[in-house]
């Protein structure tokens, strides 16, 4: 029996206001068994964890005017509402002015590096605005007094807050239409201080691990602001005998921030893979970014009810030979997708990626960056020894762009095939939005139609794989 692993990277918006950029959250790998002689590529989309939500539309808003190249365009500005999967509600503002919003688009909590805040020196000022304005400050009289905005309504407060955010997120020349809203926007812009990025509601620092049957595979470390998280073992645990244990080797069904989890795989297990899920109910920190799986404008959290958050990790194991684990994340600094291949087996693992073969020695891991075209969907598969296959799909969108006129004319058509290069390194009707009601309907992007073309890969260096425990 041989191994075949496959993964689908979540399509996310990874936009950057500045050319400087840092790593963006992307997709982690998942595994699947294949019958002898047949390589099966089951696709299991996963993220680095947190809240997953569906956007509904603007709920509290006023009007604003964008000034650009001698054009003035009036748009709606204010608070969106999102419904969290498995329970919860979020309120968000837009941080991606010139991109439209798709009604009912799916969003995933992500780090600032996965959004248009990537490389934005003023990103922390946006968090200050969120913490010091509506809806976090719902005493409108007190807020109006601070801003000198007599007669401030909820709609004015939402519009003024959004305008102030756009000035920092997009560098936009934009004003609120109503005087109280404009005074609030000016007050927030002038007084904003640079705060640190908030931590994730829930994430795992190792979402793809591997090793020999009979070992504890991991660790998978939990990071969360919840008091505790529930740990769900593999669905077939009763049959496979795979247990999820803590650092003490005891079976665990709950964990806390900093907990280390392991897959305890029986020594007589056939070659295979399994996954665990951690889940909690908590409030998502104000200032967390939310990126869409499609080209729908990026959002930033202004308020959260008690909401369900989750994360998943996968383990691959074998008795002998190469034992790979692949994970991926967008890298806007390099303009591509970083794919990290770890090999915890006792033989070298060789795989082919966009036409180039790579060999990972036993006990080591390396990262290859597949350079992609901006705003182009990608779809390619890593193929390796013994029928190994893992697929990566998504879209790279690392740059904010456009002008006021673009807000009324945006259309997303099926992208042309993306091209790529690679280098080794360490390491669809629209909701009302920052766009006007004239924005045309946007259909979903058929990423399966797009295949990455040629590539060039260069080994830069290598690093040891995490120590097995």
Helix-strand layout with pairing:
Layout: E1 3-5, E2 8-9, E3 31-33, E4 45-46, E5 52-68, E6 71-84, E7 89-94, E8 106-110, H1 123-131, H2 140-147, H3 154-169, E9 174-176, H4 179-191, E10 202-204, E11 208-212, E12 216-224, E13 229-232, H5 237-240, E14 243-245, E15 254-255, E16 260-264, E17 272-282, E18 289-292, E19 299-304, E20 307-318, E21 324-331, E22 336-343, E23 349-353, E24 356-360, E25 364-372, E26 376-384, E27 389-396, H6 406-409, E28 420-425, E29 463-464
Parallel strand pairs: 2-4, 11-20
Antiparallel strand pairs: 1-3, 5-6, 5-8, 5-9, 6-7, 7-19, 8-18, 10-12, 12-16, 13-15, 13-17, 14-16, 17-20, 18-19, 21-22, 22-25, 23-24, 23-26, 25-28, 25-29, 26-27
Helix pairs in contact: 1-3, 2-4, 3-4
In short:
It contains 6 helices and 29 strands. It is mainly beta.
What can you see in these coordinates?
The protein has 469 residues and is mainly beta. It has six helices and 29 strands. The strands form seven sheets. A six-stranded antiparallel barrel has the order 5-6-7-19-18-8. A hairpin with a 6-residue loop joins strand 18 and strand 19. The radius of gyration is 23 Å and the shape is elongated. It starts with a strand and ends in a 5-residue tail after the last strand.
């Amino acid at each position: 029996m041989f191994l075949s692993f496959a993964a689908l990277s979540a399509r996310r918006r990874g936009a950057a206001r500045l050319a400087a950029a840092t790593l963006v959250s992307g997709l982690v790998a998942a595994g699947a068994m294949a019958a002898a002689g047949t390589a099966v590529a089951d696709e299991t989309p996963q993220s680095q964890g947190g809240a997953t939500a569906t956007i509904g539309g603007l709920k509290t808003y006023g009007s604003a005017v964008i000034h650009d190249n001698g054009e003035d365009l009036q748009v709606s500005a204010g608070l969106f509402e999102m419904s969290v999967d498995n329970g919860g509600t979020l309120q968000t503002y837009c941080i991606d002015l010139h991109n439209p919003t798709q009604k009912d688009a799916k969003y995933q909590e992500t780090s600032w590096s996965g959004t248009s805040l990537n490389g934005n020196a003023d990103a922390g000022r946006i968090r200050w605005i969120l913490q010091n304005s509506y809806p976090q400050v719902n005493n409108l009289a007190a807020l109006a007094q601070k801003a000198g905005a007599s007669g401030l309504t909820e709609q004015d407060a939402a519009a003024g807050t959004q305008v102030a955010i756009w000035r920092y997120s997009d560098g936009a020349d934009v004003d609120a239409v109503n005087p109280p809203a404009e005074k609030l926007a000016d007050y927030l812009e002038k007084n904003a201080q640079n705060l640190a990025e908030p931590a994730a509601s829930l994430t795992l620092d190792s979402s793809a691990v591997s090793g020999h049957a009979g070992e504890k595979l991991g660790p998978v470390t939990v990071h969360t602001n919840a008091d505790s998280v529930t740990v769900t073992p593999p669905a077939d645990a009763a049959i496979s005998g795979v247990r999820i244990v803590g650092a003490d080797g005891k079976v665990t069904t709950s964990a806390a921030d900093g907990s280390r989890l392991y897959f305890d795989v029986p020594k007589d297990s056939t070659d295979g893979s399994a996954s665990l899920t951690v889940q909690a109910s908590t409030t998502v920190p104000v200032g967390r970014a939310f990126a869409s799986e499609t080209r729908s404008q990026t959002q930033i959290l202004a308020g959260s009810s008690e909401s369900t958050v989750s994360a998943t990790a996968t383990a691959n194991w074998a008795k002998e030979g190469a034992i790979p684990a692949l994970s991926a994340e967008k890298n806007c600094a390099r303009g591509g997708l970083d794919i990290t291949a770890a090999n915890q087996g006792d033989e070298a693992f060789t795989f082919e990626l966009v036409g180039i073969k790579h060999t990972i020695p036993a006990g080591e891991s390396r990262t290859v960056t597949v350079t992609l075209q901006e705003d182009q969907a990608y779809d390619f598969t890593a193929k390796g020894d013994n029928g190994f296959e893992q697929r990566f799909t998504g879209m790279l969108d690392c740059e904010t762009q456009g002008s006021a006129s673009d807000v009324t004319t945006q259309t997303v058509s099926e992208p042309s095939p993306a091209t790529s290069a690679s280098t080794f390194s360490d390491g669809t009707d629209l909701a009302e939005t920052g766009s006007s009601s004239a924005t045309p309907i946007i259909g979903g992007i058929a990423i399966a139609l797009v295949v990455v073309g040629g590539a060039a890969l260069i080994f830069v260096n290598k690093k040891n794989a995490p120590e097995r425990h």
